[in-house]
Structure formats: C-alpha cells, structure tokens
C-alpha cells in the first residue's frame, strides 16, 4: 500500500458503490472520496456505509447538499433549514460527520436580481458555516458546475468557504475557468483548497478522447502515456487546482489515472490554448 497522495479524489457520482473500488483506491494511496446527498437516488450515503463502514475512517469524506427529493425530478433549494436537515441526515446515514460538505451547484437557485440572489447565497453559506461549527462536518465549501455568476454575487461580505470545487479540464470553457479563478483568488484559497471535477466532461468513454491529442500539453510525453492520461493530467492546470475528483468503478482505470500523476504539464502550450479559447469566446455573438 502506497503513501497517501491527495491529488486524486475518488468521485462517486455514477458509482455502483462496490467495495472493490474503495479498497483499490486505498491500495493506490487515494484516501479521499466525494459523494452527495442526492447521488444514487438519494441513497448514496446509506449505500456507502453499507459497503464500507469499516473503511470510511480511512478516508477523507466529502459530500454535498442542495438537491432534495420531489415528486418528479429532484428539486434544488438553498433554504437554510433544508440544508441543515440534509447535513443532519447525512451524518445519520454515514454513521459519521463528513470531513467536508459542499453547497451543491448554488447557481441553480440564484436566478433572481443580484441583490436578492446575493442574500440567498449568503444565507445558505452561513447555514453551512454554522453546521460546521456545530460539528455536522469538519469544513464546508462550494461545488459549482457553472460558477460564471458567482463572482458578482460574492463581491460583498459573506462567509468564506474552506474549499471550492469547479468543473475543470480541456472541455471547460474560458468563462468557467476565469470565473473559478476569480473566486479562488477572492477567497485566497491555496491549491489544496481549490479542486477540479469532471475532467472528461462527464464521459471518459466519449469518442472525442480518441480524436484529440492532449499529449501536446504534457512535458516530455512518452509511449507509456495515453491520450486519456494526458487529458486527465492537464486538468490540474485548467484551472490550477490541487485536487481533481474523478469517478470510476474500474480499478484498472483508476490505476491508469493515478500513474498519470508522474507527468507534468507544458504550461506554455496550455497558455496558448487558453489564449485561443479567449479569442474564440470574444468572437461569439452576444
């Protein structure tokens, strides 16, 4: 068993919640897992405790709150009472307090005028901050799939999250990257507090990854580096995050991603790529 390496967080979004992926992660030195209150039809926490209650103390565990059961599709809410109840239920189902709880995609409920949206966001963040102070989690953060509106809503006084997790990688648009970086700078978050997610845009099996050549963004690539590994490794620079949450139920795939960590990105090539993204965005019609 290797020494712990914090750079990969095992994401459990589409996981089958099998014990073998947890043991495989620990064997590689991956000792962080990320799930959510609403994953697996709102049964993720119970499923995780069932398959690995004895393993959970060996992991740093993060989860998310913000989506709730409804008659149809899950509904999103930033109501502070519902958020606290979800945190309490998460504790009961997991059998422990999570190390970190994210406010899940807050942008989904921030569609009103800026002043009203700012108040809603601030109140929700205060609820998570209070939950952490009460021992319902070790720390709190914000996980955002589309953070583009968040910089304007966080310009005033509001609780500072301990961690920010955002969409990252080659498929994240320049507007998403720059909004994420603005937030991280505003809250003075170090790279270990700035996480990426969805490095393959949600699908590592997408045919796109057989057509692109992301190895151009890697220093000294060799025959042992696959396109998928190169795409994964560049995620840490788009934006510059310290950890990436990635999901798989395949131990071999997890080992492949872990082995990509030995490579380094070519920051000059990535700088050119970002410039091209910015130029392309400036030509888009309003």
What does this structure look like?
The N and C termini lie far apart (53 Å). By secondary structure, this protein is an alpha/beta fold. The protein has one domain: NADP-dependent oxidoreductase domain (TIM Barrel), CATH 3.20.20.100. The longest helix is centred in the middle third of the chain and has 20 residues, at 114-133. The radius of gyration is 19 Å and the shape is globular. Helix 1 packs parallel to helix 9. The protein has helices at residues 19-28, 39-42, 44-52, 80-94, 114-133, 150-153, 174-186, 227-234, 251-259, 267-282, and strands at 8-11, 32-34, 60-65, 67-68, 75-76, 100-104, 139-144, 163-167, 194-197, 243-247. It has an 8-stranded parallel β-barrel. Strands 4-5 form a two-stranded antiparallel ribbon. The protein contains 10 helices and 10 strands.
Keywords summarizing the entry:
10 strands, globular, 10 helices, two-stranded antiparallel sheet, eight-stranded parallel β-barrel, TIM Barrel
Summarize the structure.
The chain is an alpha/beta fold. The chain is built from ten helices and ten strands.
How would you describe the oligomerization state of the chains in this entry? single chain
CATH 2nd-level architecture? Alpha-Beta Barrel
**Mean pLDDT across residues:** 93
Strand percentage lies at: 5-15%
Structural class: alpha/beta
Number of helices: 10
Task: Indicate how many domains the architecture comprises.
Answer: 1
Largest sheet: 8 strands, parallel, barrel
CATH superfamily: NADP-dependent oxidoreductase domain
CATH class call:
Alpha Beta
Proportion of residues in helical segments: 25-40%
Counting DSSP E segments of at least 2 residues, the number of strands comes to 10
């Amino acid at each position: 068993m290797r020494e712990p390496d914090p750079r990969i967080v095992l994401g459990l979004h589409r996981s089958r919640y099998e014990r073998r992926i947890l043991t495989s992660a620990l064997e590689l030195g991956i000792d962080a897992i990320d799930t959510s209150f609403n994953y697996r039809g709102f049964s993720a926490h119970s499923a995780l405790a069932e398959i690995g209650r004895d393993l959970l103390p060996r992991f740093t565990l993060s989860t998310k709150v913000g989506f709730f059961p409804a008659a149809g599709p899950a509904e999103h809410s930033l109501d502070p009472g519902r958020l606290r109840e979800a945190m309490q239920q998460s504790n009961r189902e997991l059998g422990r307090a999570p190390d970190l709880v994210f406010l899940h995609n807050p942008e989904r409920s921030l569609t009103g005028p800026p002043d009203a949206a700012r108040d809603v966001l601030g109140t929700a963040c205060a609820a998570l901050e209070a939950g952490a102070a009460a021992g319902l989690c070790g720390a709190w953060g914000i996980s955002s799939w589309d953070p583009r509106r968040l910089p304007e809503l966080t310009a005033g006084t509001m609780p500072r999250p301990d961690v920010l997790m955002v969409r990252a990688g080659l498929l994240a648009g320049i507007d998403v990257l720059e909004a994420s970086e603005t937030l991280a700078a505003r809250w003075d978050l170090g790279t270990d507090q700035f996480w990426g997610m969805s490095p393959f845009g949600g699908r590592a099996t997408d045919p796109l990854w057989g057509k692109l050549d992301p190895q151009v963004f890697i220093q000294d690539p060799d025959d042992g580096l696959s396109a998928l590994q190169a795409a994964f490794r560049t995620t840490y620079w788009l934006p510059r995050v310290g950890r990436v949450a990635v999901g798989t139920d395949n131990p071999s795939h997890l080992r492949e991603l872990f082995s990509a960590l030995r490579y380094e990105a070519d920051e000059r090539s990535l700088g050119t790529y970002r410039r091209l993204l910015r130029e392309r965005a400036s030509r888009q019609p309003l």
